[in-house]
Amino acid sequence: MSKDSLTALAQMLIRQRSLSGEESAVVELIISEMQRLGFDHVWKDKNGSAIGVIKGTLPGSTLLLDGHCDTVGVAPGVSWTHDPFGGEIKGGVIYGRGAADMKGALAAMIHAAASMDRSRLKGEVVVSATVMEESLEGASLQAVMEALAPDFVVIGEATYLNLNRGGRGRAEIHLETIGRPAHSSSPHLGRNAVHDMMKVIRAVESLPVKTDPLLGQTVFALTDIISDPFPACSTIPSRCRVTYDRRLIAGETSDEILDAIRTSPELQGIGLRAEIATAEHHTYTGAILRGTKFLPAWTFPEADSFIQACLHGLRTAGLHPKIGAYRFCTNATYSAGVAGVPTVGFGPGREEDAHIVDEHLELKSLIAAKKGYRGIIDAVLSESNGQQGSTVPKSSV
Ligand SMILES: [Zn+2]
After folding, report:
1. In 3D, which of 245, 248, 244, 243 has the Cα closest to residue 217?
2. Between 104-114 and 5-15, two packed helices, what is the crossing angle to 10 degrees?
3. Do 80 and 143 touch, CB atoms closer than 8 A?
4. Cα-atom radius of gyration of the chain, to the nearest Å?
5. Distance, CA 182 to ligand 1 centroid (Å)?
6. How many other C-beta atoms are found inside a 10 Å radius of the C-beta of residue 390?
7. Backbone φ, ψ for residue 181 (5° rounding)
8. Distance from Cα 194 to the centre of ligand 1, integer Å
9. Which of 130, 265, 266, 298 shows its CA 20 to 30 Å from the CA of 203?
10. Rounded to two decimals, what is the model's pTM?
11. By three-state DSSP, how is residue 47 classified?
């Protein structure tokens, strides 16, 4: 397969490392590619996200295509068969960190938007390459959306060319037990916070699991635990803290999740603090992204006019999408879960290919994704899109 400019961009983006908070160089690459491709307006916002606009000649809606440009790192001591920053192409597959999550999608979005016929577009297409999604989902997209007020959002995280109309959310929960220190030669004189935490863990992990027909099940996963003092040096620990990652289904609130733990009958009499973690991250521009780690789930009904327009656009582009939902948390937790703006997920690659050793993307999937984005833009913004002969109404939900 000869290398086209879309593949070349994906390769260039993969070759440029871009851990969260270190996206400066990749953002410069994206900005110069948007300028080269003739975007009407290209800039970098205060968080350092790259934004490019293609303006249609007719007035209409704003459709935002978002892809994050940061990636997770490469775990030390784990060897890759292909250089994680080589962008190597072998057997129709491109390898490297970010290939599936989600530099391929970003390249496809940029090329799709740039290839549209402006004379047929009602409104504008915006592509955002947002920073720090791997640290705090939704935070940098929030700034982009506050500046541009899009009517519709497409998140390019991996769907294997299917169309997602929902996604699970996530909460990071800190639980702390408070006991009383004593010399370990007389443990009965203290109260062991680790023993209390063992009861807390049993109670949390026996809370009922909830199920959503689209999003699947809620999950409580213990991700870290530490006692204090550590090491304890013959002292009964007086504090113990665990972190739980809780995957959310639509409609769940932080109060309801914390209350279920606090009011658990087995835990009465235990000194327990339960709270949602908070986060504060510095972007490479020096801006600060703050937020609580409660990132709500989202769903839109299959009959929603934006979902139907996207489906129509993808089919017109020759794709055969199934309708589904993300199991992982994406920037849509803000666009759909918080802001309530009609949002879909569509991207090349598979969800399970994110964050893995030998991360990769099939080139045919990359090329199909560009066609898919073009189909969606056409169905949502073009003057005659074949669906009732008009663009999607702004208030589709
Ligand atoms: Zn991602």
Report:
1. 248
2. 140
3. no
4. 23
5. 47
6. 11
7. -75, 150
8. 36
9. 298
10. 0.92
11. coil
- Whole-number Å distance, alpha carbon 328 to ligand 1 midpoint, is 9
> 385 CA to middle of ligand 1, Å?
30
CB count within 10 Å of CB 229 equals 12
Residues 215 and 166 sit within 8 Å (Cβ to Cβ): yes
Q: Number of helices (H) and strands (E), helices first, in the chain?
A: 9, 21
Rounded to the nearest angstrom, the distance between the alpha carbon of 198 and the centre of ligand 1 is: 34
Distance 131 CA to ligand 1 centre (A): 11
Coil, helix or strand at residue 356? coil
Using CA atoms, how far apart are residues 7 and 19, in angstroms rounded to an integer? 21
Mean pLDDT per 10-residue interval, the chain, length 397 residues:
83 97 98 98 98 96 98 90 95 97 98 97 98 95 98 98 97 98 96 98 96 95 97 96 97 96 96 97 97 96 97 98 96 97 97 91 98 98 57 56
Copy the structure tokens of residue 324: 């589904």
